[in-house]
Amino acid sequence: MPADHPPGKFPELAPEALRARVDPAELAFESTAALTPLQSGVVGQARGIGAIRFGVGLKNDGYHIFVAGPPKAGLTYIAKTLLEDQARREPDPPDWCYVHNFEAADKPRSLKLRAGRGKDLKRDMEELIETLHTRIPEVFDSDDYRARENEVSKGFDRQRRKLEEELSRTARAEGFLLQVSQVGMVIIPVDQDGKPLDQKAVNQLGDEEKQRLQEKSEALQAKMKTAFKRMRALEGEYKKEHARLDNEIALFCVEHIMESLLEKYRDEADVIAYLKAAQKDILDNIDDFKKKPDEKSQPSPFRLPTRESTFRKYEINVLLDNSETQGAPVVIESNPTYPNLFGTIDKQALLGAFYTDFSMIKPGALHRANGGYLIMKARDLLKWFLSYEALKRALNNHEIKIEDPSELYGLFGTRSLRPEPIPLKVKIILTGDPFIYELLYTLDERFQKFFKVKAHLDDRIDRAADHVRQFAQMIARFCREEGFRHVARGGAARLLEYSMELTQDQDKLSLELGDIRDLIREADYYAGESEAELIDRQHVETAIRSRIQRANLVEDRVMELVKKDICWVETEGSKVGQINGLSILMTGDHLFGKPNRITATVSVGREGVVAIERESKLSGKLHTKGVMILSNFLKEHFGRDKPISLTASLCFEQSYGPVEGDSASSTELYAILSALAEVPIRQGIAVTGSVSQKGEIQPVGGVTRKIEAFFEICRHKGLTGGQGVIIPQKNVRHLMLRQDVVDAVRDGQFHVWPVSRVEEGIEILTGLPAGRPGTDDTYTEGTVFFKVDQRLRRIAQIVKDFGGGPGEKNDASRT
């Protein structure tokens, strides 16, 4: 038997154990076209679905929902699908409108109406104002109105003339002439002939005569003041009578038109109150309606206080129109900034200033979701601290308040509106990583108050028959929703296998449905390229290979360095203290394995096991832990009857980046045992797996990619039939190897050995028995552990001889 061929006594995995295969013949359909699409849109997830339904059904405050799970599990899609199914059975939400507040213009009023009636009210008010524009000028220009107005005017004129005549007779009796003009009334003294005296004539009068005129003039002035008061009283009565007439005419006209609206909206209390307030304002400002529109006026690009802007206060701003909504709304907000969430009050620049009114109030996602459900990603919401804090405040106060962000920050800003808050009744659903939930739950006590329902979604389910059927029905749903070609039975089988590859578990299916959907989309493209009617296995295979090829540039560069022996990895022969380890690298969207040459040297000393990566600060905490375990393994197995005094150095050769994880700890232990025992290790074998202090081989991640990476190197350098990989026994269920690797194992060109203890691995690597301790803690001569034990005894004796005697404390504890 060649030196690089392990003996056949060591059990290896059969080809059937290396990959779970789905037999297309076992699928009870020819293509997904024959399947009924999964109505719920969700595969598995019983725990999460139950939590979501509980949160939806419980309408009490604080029971909002946080859907936690991996990003590719389709958290938002699952939540949306379940909520839409529930929302269809719930009542339609009401319409909401903002209207002018006739008592305080900067505080617009909110109106609640039944679904679909908001736009009706807007149209009715537009028709009302338009009708009043036409009818009121006609009424006030009618002969009947003119006759009644003339009657009122003539009555006033008669009383005014009568008062003037009485005052004139009194003036003449006293020797004065009363003159009435537009600027008022004046009295002028007259002579015996009744002619007015000018100032010169008055000056020629004697003192007694002047005194007499002065006294009469003052008496008349007093009577004139009394007459003036009576005149003003008459004018006031005239205005009141005229206003009473106008109001009577206007009231008759407005009430006649308004009556139908009051009847139409008699069951809408808010609307009735608004209509009555609008009617009162119309009557108070009836003069605005008397004016006929100026046909020659040109429309202005600015919202100037023109005739049109005068009547803008009677408009209806339909904030939320639910006329087309069926059931409760389900809203997804992908950018929850404060304006997008709570709405805005738009402003328009006008002559160097900003102008706004109630008609510029715009709704936010909370308004659209009011009465239903609002879905947001937690990470998106937390990017906007103001939105998050305002949302909690809105949930606490049960109202949506539209505010200017500058006011929220306490900054000075232009004077804005303060719309009346709208009552809030909504169920918030946040989706995100479980870690975000833990952070919020721990650090934000108000988060605990509001989000009491955690719906934790899994990223995998058991590969049971009912789950396989649901998975196929989900594929059918994707095809119909997205317009893909349907998937043939062979293609569905390959998709199921790919799902297992994602989970790295032969007994699990992936619930990262977004990834599956994308793969179907890509396979549909290749099916179209080949003009196939259905997506079959080869199309899915092509899509998978193409996806890998688009992302594996770094892997190709790394493997090129290994294949050209720039990065040194040996696949033949045997060497002492040298072994092939396997690591995992990730480039964001691609995961691949990389072989590493690990070497160990042993010498006399007291430093213990030293990792060069740790000393050079390239070792992570988990790797350091793995190295510390090696020292304890040596003490457990060989330190019962002697001190462990040595210096063992470990190194990942040609590794220039950080080393993390403990998946190479068993590999490093094999290298140290080889160096201590001076027994060569077969270089055609690579190893992965972590080790415990007791020598148990523990499972690690990425085992499939690691095996495939070493197989590529062996195939490039030439398969000898003795090459292979040692993996933990508990990782067997995680294998989903490529078909070419499985074929090589079937042909005896490559091997995969599962081990559960260090002893099994060292025997495969060296071809020698590991050795078992006897009753006196000694090992059988000729075994690997016997050689290790003897070497440690020699080192301990040397340390004792050169270290100052047996009383010196053993210092071989450094790791």
Describe this structure in words.
By secondary structure, the chain is an alpha/beta fold. A seven-stranded mixed beta sheet has the order 22-23-21-20-25-28-29, with helices on both faces. Residues 295-307 and 805-815 have low confidence and may be disordered.
Domain tally: 4
DSSP strand count: 29
The N- to C-terminal Cα distance equals: 39 Å
Q: Could you say which structural class the secondary elements and strand pairing correspond to?
A: alpha/beta
Largest sheet: 7 strands, mixed
Determine and state the CATH class of the largest domain: Alpha Beta
CATH architecture of the largest domain: 2-Layer Sandwich
In spatial order, strands of the major sheet run: 22-23-21-20-25-28-29
As a percent range, the share of helical residues equals 40-55%
Q: How does the overall form come out from the CA principal axes?
A: elongated
On the 0-100 scale, what is the average pLDDT? 83
CATH level 3 topology of the largest domain:
Ribosomal Protein S5, domain 2
Share of β-strand residues: 15-25%
SS summary, helix count: 28
List keywords for this structure.
Rossmann fold; five-stranded parallel sheet; alpha/beta; seven-stranded mixed sheet; 815 residues; Helicase, Ruva Protein, domain 3; 46% helix; 28 helices; 4 domains
In short:
This protein is α/β, with parallel strands linked by helices.
Helices and strands, with pairings:
Layout: H1 46-57, E1 65-68, H2 75-87, E2 95-99, E3 109-113, H3 117-140, H4 143-173, E4 176-181, E5 184-189, H5 199-203, H6 207-264, H7 269-284, H8 286-290, H9 307-310, E6 317-320, E7 330-332, H10 338-342, E8 344-345, E9 348-350, E10 353-355, E11 361-362, H11 365-369, E12 373-377, H12 378-382, H13 385-397, E13 399-400, H14 405-408, E14 422-423, E15 427-432, H15 434-443, H16 445-450, E16 453-456, E17 460-462, H17 465-482, H18 489-503, E18 508-510, H19 513-529, H20 537-551, H21 553-563, E19 574-576, E20 578-586, E21 591-603, E22 608-611, H22 612-615, H23 621-638, E23 647-652, H24 665-677, E24 680-682, E25 685-687, E26 690-691, E27 697-698, H25 703-717, E28 724-728, H26 739-746, E29 751-755, H27 758-766, H28 784-802
Parallel strand pairs: 1-15, 1-16, 7-12, 12-15, 20-25, 22-23, 25-28, 28-29
Antiparallel strand pairs: 2-3, 2-6, 4-5, 8-11, 9-10, 13-14, 17-18, 19-24, 20-21, 21-23, 26-27
Helix pairs in contact: 1-2, 3-6, 4-6, 6-7, 17-19, 18-20, 19-20, 23-24, 24-27, 24-28
